[in-house]
Amino acid sequence: MKKLFTVIGMIAAITAVVMTSTLYYDLAILPLIIAFVSGIILIYISKKEHSKTKPIQYIFLLVIFSLSLTIYKSVTSTIEDEQAIQTEQESTENLNNSQGNLIEIEPEEEP
Questions:
Q1: Residue 26 falls within a domain, yes or no?
Q2: Are 59 and 5 in contact (CB under 8 A)?
Q3: Residue 28: which domain range?
Q4: Cβ atoms of 48 and 34 closer than 8 Å
Q5: 20 to 30 A from 7, CA-CA: which of 22, 33, 39, 106?
Q6: Tell me: the pLDDT tens digits for 69-79?
Q7: Number of domains making up the chain
C-alpha cells in the first residue's frame, strides 16, 4: 500500500513540475492535488509502520516547487498579457490613423 501511494505521489509530483514549465501551467493544479493527498496518506501510513520518510519529503519538495512556479507564472503572465494587449491596441490605433492620412492625400494628376 505504501509503495502504491509513493509511486502515485512521485509520478504526480514530477508531472506537476513538468507541466509548470510548459504552457499548460494552469492545468498543473490537478497533479499537485494528487501528489499532496498521496503525501498526506503516506504520512499516516509511515506513522503506523514507523518507516522512512524520505519519499514523502521528496514528494512535498516537488509539490512546493511546482506550486510556487505555478503561482509565479499566474501572476506574471497576467501582467504581461495586459501590457501586450495595451501595446497591440496602441499600434492598431496608430495604423488606423496613418491609413486615414494616406487616404486623404490624393496624387496630383499630370496633364
A1: yes
A2: no
A3: 2-71
A4: no
A5: 22
A6: 988 888 887 66
A7: 1
